Amino acid sequence: MDTIVRLADSDRALLAELTYQLKRRNDLDEQSGARDELLTCTQAADILGVTRQTVSLMLRRNRLHKVTRGGRTGILRSELEKVS
Hints:
The protein has one domain (9-83): Multidrug-efflux Transporter Regulator, Chain: A, Domain 2. It starts with 8 loop residues before the first helix and ends with a helix. The chain is α+β, with helices and mostly antiparallel strands. The chain has helices at 9-31, 41-48, 52-60, 77-83; strands spanning 38-39, 66-69, 72-76. Helix 2 (41-48) crosses helix 3. It contains 4 helices and 3 strands; from the N terminus they run H-E-H-H-E-E-H. A hairpin with a 2-residue loop joins strand 2 and strand 3. Strands 1-3-2 form a 3-stranded antiparallel beta sheet.
C-alpha cells in the first residue's frame, strides 16, 4: 500500500536542504583522502579472525556499522579498528 505524505513548503525546503547536504558530504568524502576501503562481511571476518556470522551479529548489536557508498553497502576498514 502506497502512502502519500503531504509536506508543507517549509518542510519540503528543509528536506531538500538536508538531502543536498548529505549528498555533498558523501561527495566530499569520496573526493578527499578520507574515503576508507569498503569491505564485505566475509572480508571483515577474515581481518578480525572471526566468522561471517559473528560479523553479522556484531552488525545487529551495533558493534559495527554498515555504510553505503556508490551503491555498495559494506563495512569501512576504520570500523574494524574500533572493535579489534
